[in-house]
């Protein structure tokens, strides 16, 4: 139950308040990671998400479970009738709610096969699952309430994609008073230049959004 420090976190050492920490696994859903999913249907190469970041996300998830952190899994997911999806979102992406690949089902729709979490980081009993209609994990969800009722103060982020749902969730969490850190090598984007710029942005100006480190730093701190 002691505090742990990540000494080489950027922009300065980060304190993990033991027992007050949640691991936030952002949108590790097949919609984004599978070559048959939504991300791929938009013309993106998904392999990098699975090959580069997913193995590190597994390490952080396992370390978090071992250290008895709270674990949160988010999914970008709409109700079947799309009543929680603003028309503007559909206007800019008419694939939402449509079926591009029969095995994946309807894109970004709750409980469809594509809306399931990568098996390597699948939730286990007792872990929080947050279906979010937006990019941010706090918009139109009860995540803030769930974290605060558990006494959580510190959030460790992994997930996809860095500059969309991970960054948005981190910014929302920052505004709600959580101390946030992301592991650079446990998050991924379809666009390497966006990932790089996003991570630099997060820790710039004395940690304007939060901190950054590497997977091994998180794993060592949680030991
Ligand atoms: C996107 C996400 N990229 N999870 N969603 O639309 O980052």
From TrEMBL:
Residues 21-208 form the Isochorismatase-like domain. It comes from the Eukaryota. Belongs to the isochorismatase family. This is Isochorismatase family protein. The chain holds residues 240 to 462 of 463 of the full protein.
């Amino acid at each position: 139950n002691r505090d742990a420090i990540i000494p080489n976190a950027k922009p300065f050492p980060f304190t993990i308040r033991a027992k007050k920490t949640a691991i936030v696994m952002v949108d590790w859903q097949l919609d984004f990671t599978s070559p048959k999913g939504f991300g791929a249907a938009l013309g993106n190469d998904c392999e990098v998400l699975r090959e580069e970041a997913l193995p590190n996300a597994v390490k952080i998830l396992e370390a978090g479970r071992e250290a008895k952190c709270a674990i949160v899994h988010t999914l970008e997911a709409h109700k079947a009738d799309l009543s929680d999806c603003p028309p503007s979102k559909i206007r800019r992406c008419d694939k939402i709610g449509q079926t591009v690949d029969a095995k994946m089902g309807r894109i970004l729709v709750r409980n469809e096969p594509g809306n399931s979490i990568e098996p390597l980081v699948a939730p286990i009993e007792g872990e929080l699952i947050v279906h979010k209609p937006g990019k941010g994990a706090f918009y139109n969800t009860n995540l803030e309430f769930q974290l605060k009722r558990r006494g959580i103060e510190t959030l460790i982020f992994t997930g996809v994609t860095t500059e969309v749902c991970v960054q948005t969730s981190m910014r929302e969490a920052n505004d709600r008073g959580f101390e946030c850190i992301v592991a650079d090598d446990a998050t991924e984007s379809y666009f390497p230049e966006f990932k790089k710029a996003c991570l630099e942005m997060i820790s710039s100006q004395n940690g304007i959004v939060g901190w950054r480190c590497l997977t091994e730093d998180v794993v060592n701190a949680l030991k």
